Sequence to fold (241 residues):
Amino acid sequence: METESGADFFPDCNTGPGMDEQQQMHASNRPAEHITILLPGGLIAPEEMKAVIAVAARFDLSCYATTAQNLRLLGATRENLDEIKRMLKDSGFHLKEAGRFPKPKVCIGLPYCKLGLADTFALSKRILERFGNRSGVKPKWKIALSGCPACCTGSKLVDVGVVATRKGFDVFAGGKGGLQPKTGKRIARAVSEGEVVEMIGRLADYHAAHTGKKQRMFKLLGREDFPFPVEDGEGDAPAHR
Ligand code: SF4
Fold:
């Protein structure tokens, strides 16, 4: 529930590098285990929301909406962690676990955005229907889908980014945020939705074949056998409309 200052909802926000000894002790005593519920397209149905609220209320958890469009439950303990996970899985949720295929980050696109050129939720669904059950997927690569060149989901700042244009989809690879951000390079122009899905499959296979434990895609772009032509510097330019 929103409060006037937010202080009631976030009672421990004043923790951090500047906190005193007593505050540090208080922070370290708080239950710190957490569970991430993966939401396809960032969507959650009313019945699913009720199930999450019931679990959160029962175990006194906070619900944090992550930048990856997932829902993270904060404040579990080592003792109740397994029970919470079991209850969420019994409700049909996918939880963040090693080896899962990443859920694409999705802007609202058509028909919800007046600038939208593509139905991004439909594309996300198609990608997850094809690859969502893959196991053994190595970290770390992220996918983002944008319904127009405005790139609201940061499609040029993730490992595989898709941007709808008036001529089809442009595909970018090798972007990342974090400490040393990189802009993705364009690897395809004006391809169809079906071609986007095929490209994601080939990129997933390529990443798996050339990755030990974990690897961002930008490290693979320079290899001679990279499966798509990489445009030089094009990722910085706006995608053509
Ligand atoms: S990327 Fe384009 S279509 Fe998607 S939400 Fe932003 S402006 Fe709308």
About this structure: The longest helix spans residues 193-209. The first strand starts at residue 33 and ends at 38. Strands lie at 33-38, 62-65, 71-76, 94-95, 105-106, 143-146, 160-165, 168-173, 185-191. Residues 105-236 form a domain with the Sulfite Reductase Hemoprotein; domain 1 fold (CATH 3.30.413.10).
